[in-house]
Design goal:
By secondary structure, this protein is an alpha/beta fold. Helices cover 42% and strands 7% of the residues. The strands form two sheets. It has a five-stranded parallel β-sheet, sandwiched between helices. Strand 2, helix 6 and strand 3 form a beta-alpha-beta unit. The radius of gyration is 24 Å and the shape is globular. The structure holds thiamine diphosphate and magnesium ion. Magnesium ion binds next to strand 4.
């Protein structure tokens, strides 16, 4: 087992992990209260992998993650209140309330996001590293992704270019044993993920992702290789999420006993115990860390709750496509002009109109019972699909193929 660092570092590692744990527990509660919307993926149990990795990075380095990244942003230095406000969809959120849980972003702290597309962050990581290399900067990009993401085409493409162009990038696989409800053994032909990029010349190692010091040391070396030798490498950290994949997961793919076994190795409890036993930290400090985390999270909820929702007429702000296209859905040759709600310049006005029309529609009584697809199938026999009036019969035949 690697030696403990100095007391100040141990305190900081414990404090970050505790803060993230408290934040995630509260995020789960706020989601159940419907204060946080959209999807919610919690990283409870994975704190050592997150904090250990970030603790080995410099301020000028970039971090990029997946959709399970509240903790990554907080580890990188984003104040919890801005992350909570993002979960609440409020203007003070890290993405102005537009992104929600899966799209936390903080350019100042060089946390380059939150992506909903599995494996989608890998090529972006290579791009960030390429930009550092191109500009002659010293920054390293750290790319964190799941075991499931290692099966995507993006994985191979990214490894190829990272190795070929000798990019200053480092990869960390958060192997929590599952991609949604599918275990690694059932989703990956090569179950040793540290070897999965060997064919591209990228070597790797496997480590205990529940041990914050082990993670910190392995990542420090990987980041050093990327910075000093332009050599990308992979570390596969074994970790575990105690909660379901997302807030809507009945968890039929694993046994309670398995979750319990991993809880016994809790990364925060075990690190606190180790620090106290080694007399690097006292019980008083461990307690203080918990109290501070409680207070910070309470403050984050109050802040998020007090932050206003974005105004409706700002709905189409920050869309880079706005000025460049006249109607991006107008691909139907029968009526290529922008349809209602598609005209870019009139977006704010059209948004209000559509929202009002939707609200009026929602207020109407139900027209009768809806067909149940489980009983009737998606397309009901004998019921012709509805076709726009002007379309010729033969076109309909053609479309049915
Ligand atoms: C390209 C793509 N395919 C499928 C999905 C649906 N999906 C969301 S999360 C997920 C599992 C990914 O597992 P893993 O990479 O191990 O990350 P973890 O959730 O365990 O952190 C899948 C398949 C998606 N978001 N994007
Ligand atoms: Mg996984």
């Amino acid at each position: 087992m690697a030696d403990l660092p100095d007391a100040g570092t141990c305190y900081e590692l414990l404090a970050r992990m505790t803060l993230i744990r408290r934040f995630e527990e509260e995020a789960g509660r706020q989601y159940q209260r419907a204060k946080a919307g959209g999807f919610l993926h919690l990283g409870i149990g994975e704190e050592a992998t997150i904090v250990g990795t970030v603790s080995a990075m410099r301020d000028e380095d970039y971090l990029i993650g997946t959709y399970r990244t509240h903790g990554h942003a907080i580890a990188r230095g984003t104040e919890p209140k801005y992350v909570m406000a993002e979960l609440f969809g409020r203007v003070d959120g890290t993405s102005g309330g537009r992104g929600g849980s899966m799209h936390i972003f903080d350019r100042e702290n060089r946390f380059m996001g939150g992506y909903g597309v599995v494996g989608g962050n890998l090529p972006i990581a290579a791009g960030l590293a390429l930009s550092s290399q191109y500009k002659g900067e010293d920054s390293v990009t750290v790319c964190m992704f799941g075991d499931g993401a290692s099966n995507t085409g993006n994985f191979g493409e990214t490894m190829n270019l990272a190795a070929l162009w000798k990019l200053p990038v480092f990869f960390l696989v958060e192997n929590n044993l599952y991609g949604m409800g599918t275990s690694v053994e059932r989703h990956s032909a090569q179950t040793d993920l540290s070897k999965k990029a060997e064919g591209f010349g990228i070597s790797g190692e496997r480590i205990d992702g529940m041990d914050v010091i082990a993670v910190r040391e392995a990542v420090a070396e990987g980041v050093r290789l990327a910075r000093e030798e332009q050599r990308p490498t992979i570390v596969e950290a074994f970790t575990y999420r105690y909660r379901g994949h997302s807030a809507a997961d009945p968890e039929v793919y694993r046994e309670r006993e398995e979750v319990e076994e991993w809880r016994q190795r809790d990364p925060i409890e075990s690190f606190a115990r180790r620090c106290v036993e080694a007399e690097v930290l006292g019980e008083r400090e461990v307690k203080e860390v918990r109290e501070k985390a409680d207070a910070a999270v309470r403050e984050a909820v109050e802040f998020a709750d007090a932050s206003p929702e974005p105004a409706l007429d700002t709905l189409y702000e920050n869309l880079y496509v706005l000025d460049s296209a006249a109607g991006w859905y107008a691909v139907d040759e029968r009526s290529p002009e922008p349809h209602r709600g598609e005209h870019e310049e009139r977006m704010p006005e059209a948004a209000r109109e559509l929202a009002e029309a939707g609200a009026a529609y929602a207020g109407q009584p139900e027209p009768g019972p809806r067909p149940n697809p489980a009983e009737h199938g998606d397309a009901q026999e004998g019921v012709e699909p509805e076709v726009a009036g002007e379309v010729e019969d033969e076109q309909v035949e053609e479309r049915r193929g």
